Every structure is written in C-alpha cells, then in structure tokens.
Amino acid sequence: MLKARSRHASFAVVLILLGLLLTLQFRTQRLMTSSLEALSTEELVTMWKKLDVKRTQLQTEVNSLLEQLQALENKSSSGLDAQKALQKELDRLQLAYGLIPVKGPGITVTITGDAPLLYYDLVDLVNELWASGAEAIAINDQRVTAATIINDITEGNNIYITVNGNKLLYPIVIKAIGDPHTLEKGLTFTGGLVDNLNTLYNIFPDIKKAESLSLPAAPPPTWRYARPAPPANKESEKG
Predict the structure, then answer these.
(1) Same domain, 75 and 114
(2) Domain containing residue 76
(3) How far apart are CA 123 and CA 89, in angstroms?
(4) Where are the alpha helices (DSSP H) in the chain?
(5) Can you tell me the distance from the alpha carbon of 5 to that of 7, in angstroms, rounded to the nearest whole number?
C-alpha cells in the first residue's frame, strides 16, 4: 500500500511539473506577443536566458521524478517475482511433506481381509512404490510422509495394522500418484515384491491404473524437541 501511494504521489508531481512547463511556455508566448515591441534587444536576451534556465531546471526535475517512478515500478515488479518464487518453493515443500492435497494419475493397490498381510508387508509395498517413482502415497486416505509410522497392535485374538496409531480396516487401499505404468511394473516384475507375496504368502494385491487420484493432506507434524539449528559459522568451519 505504501509503495502504491509513493508511486501515485510521484506520478502526480510529474503531472504538476509538466503542467508548469506548459503554463510557463504559454505565458512566455503571450508575454513575447504583447510586449515584444516595448523591450530592447538586451532585455529580450536576458528574459530568454532566465526562462531557458527555469525551463531546464523544471525539465531536470521532471526527468528525475520519471526515473524514480520507473525505479519504483521495477522494484515492485522485482518484489512480485520474488513473492512468486517464494510461493513456488513453499508449494514444493508442502507437496514434499504431504501438507497439501494432491491429485494426479497413478495406481491403486487393494488388499482384502482374507490376505494374511502383516504390517511389514505394507511397509515393503510403500517403499517399493517410493522406489518406483511415486510422488505421493496414501493408505486408506491417510497420507504417507516421512513421519508416518506403520505398525500393528493386538486386541484379544486380533492383530490390526495401524498407520500413525489408527487401525486400518479392510479392504486396505493404497493410492500412489506417479507414472501408472512405471509404478505397476515396479511392483509386478518377475521375482519382485508382489510376485513374492503371491507365491510365498498367498497374498494377491489387486493393482489398477488410474487416470486421476485424489490424496488428502497429512496433518502438520508436531515437533516436541527438534528446533532449527543456527547457521554454521563459515570461519569456524575453515578452522
């Protein structure tokens, strides 16, 4: 708001000075027309010199203000570019940490309740998807990030797989955004993870390509002990 007011004020001053120049020129013409015969040559020369000096001074001030106006506009544009760059970096970081919802093509991996799935099988599936180029993953609509904890709990005779302490109910659906073909091949190649789940544990994930998947944002992490470290002293590092 202050920059905008400053630009408007500078522009107004420029207009005023230009008006003074035009007024001065008009008055000079009228003066020369009405009193030319009454003035001597020396007086005319002196008058023209004074008017020329005044005109030059005003023109210099106008040029200076125009330069300041241009500098303010350039600074404003530069600030806008910096703001856009910061917003782009913020979006990238939020995307990387799962703090914003995302959508895109990818695959779904569905596992039904009759499969003897253990939590570390789920961990292996998620890691294999990351290794195959997944850009975002969710399990039963819970976003997976670097802080996600996949574990299990026992309640009576039942064992439940948990994500961040939340029990997963079947069917377990993993959604992964990335190149659908690459993600699918990363799981299904011969001798790979899914092949081993099929042959060794009788687990048969249902894998389907999707043109568009929507994944929710993860809740922001809570830092209890970690704090940003101060920047390292380059001089002490050299020593």
Answers:
(1) no
(2) 38-97
(3) 29
(4) 2-35, 41-96, 119-131, 180-188, 193-201, 234-238
(5) 5
